[in-house]
Amino acid sequence: MLNTSEIEVESDFEELSEKRPFFQVFFELIRKQPLGAAGGGIVVLMILMAIFAELLTVFDPELNSLEHMLMPPDDTFWLGTDQFGRDLLTRIIYGARTALLVGFTCAIVGATLGLVLGVASAYFGGMFDLIVQRIVDVVMAFPLIILALAVVATLGPGTQNVIIAITIPFVPQCARVVRSNALAIREIPYVDAARALGFSDMRIILRHMVPNVMAPYLIMLTSFLGQAILLEASLSYLGMGVQEPTPAWGLMLQGGAEEFAESAPWVAIWPGIAISLAVFGFNLFGDSVRDTLDPKLRSR
């Protein structure tokens, strides 16, 4: 029979044997999730564009240059210029900042509020849970774009109002998913033991329930990123989102998609490709996170 010291030595040996070099783990993840790695690469590239925008281009994204209106791609303007003579590559690079600002803010705030609301609803139950879930049902009855349009129409256009309009529909979606997981956790004996020890409701929720619902929270968070970017682009295209002269991909489509589709197609093509790649990358990355964190899919 092994004594305590021998068991500790064996456990330490197992931990050391399980430790592998970072690059080995990194390349193994790429091998297992190639599409997720591709999506993560797009996300990293987008983040680097937003951070080092000043170093990647020499043009001002908001300065009009009428003598350079609608110039096709050449050695100076690699992607051409728009109807105001602004360099499209510069506008796309700086537009990544707007997309990431809206995407990350809406996803983090919406998912976090949904996490708190879902866990609280599952923990307290009763009338509180009934009221919260009926409100969630009402909000989720409206499509995302319709609800966002209604909020922006009430508050007015602008980056801050767009963030509020996109965040509101995300809260009930995350709350519903988190609540379904928190209901099962509430019945686990250690939650009853925490109540018996006299722990406060806040401590039980934050210390014992929230950490056990982080997997669905992270899955919802990553899925919200692509949705937020697409919604922001849609609202800006409709003239109810980000306003000129702020660089935004949807705003770039607003003036070029219809008027210059034949005479200067590059005005609409490049912003459309940027939006597609961003949403595609975040969706692929979100799917890989789901496959990694979901126990039902992890063994496949």
Helix/strand-derived category reads mainly alpha
Beta content: under 5%
Task: Give me the CATH architecture, please.
Answer: Orthogonal Bundle
Distance between the termini: 37 Å
| CATH C-level label | Mainly Alpha
User: What is the helix/strand order?
Assistant: HHHHHHHHHHHHHH
Mean pLDDT: 85
Q: CATH superfamily membership, which one?
A: MetI-like
Low-confidence stretches: 1-17
What is the CA-atom radius of gyration, in angstroms?
24 Å
Helical content (DSSP H or I, runs of 4+): over 70%
| Structure annotation, total helices | 14
CATH topology-level name: MetI-like fold
Q: Given the C-alpha coordinates, what overall shape results?
A: elongated
The count of domains is 1
Largest sheet: none
> How many beta-strand segments?
0
Chain-wise SSE layout:
Elements: H1 4-18, H2 22-32, H3 34-51, H4 53-56, H5 88-124, H6 126-140, H7 144-155, H8 159-186, H9 189-196, H10 201-209, H11 214-237, H12 249-256, H13 266-293, H14 295-298
What does this structure look like?
With 300 residues, this protein is an all-alpha fold. The protein has a single domain (33-47, 73-298), classed as MetI-like fold (Orthogonal Bundle). It contains 14 helices and no strands. Helix 3 packs across helix 5 (88-124) and helix 6 crosses helix 8. The longest helix is centred in the middle third of the chain and has 37 residues, at 88-124. The protein is elongated, with a radius of gyration of 24 Å. The two termini are 37 Å apart. The model is unreliable at 1-17 (pLDDT under 50).
